[in-house]
Amino acid sequence: MTDMKDMNDLKEMKDVNDCIFCNIASGEMDVPLVYEDELVVAFDDVSPQAPVHTLIVPKQHVASLNDDPDPALLAAVFGAAREVARLKGIADSGYRLVQNNGADAGQTVHHLHVHVLGGAELSVQMS
Ligand code: DGP
Question: Based on CB atoms within 10 Å of each CB, which residue in 37, 43, 64, 93 is the most buried?
Answer without folding.
Answer: 43
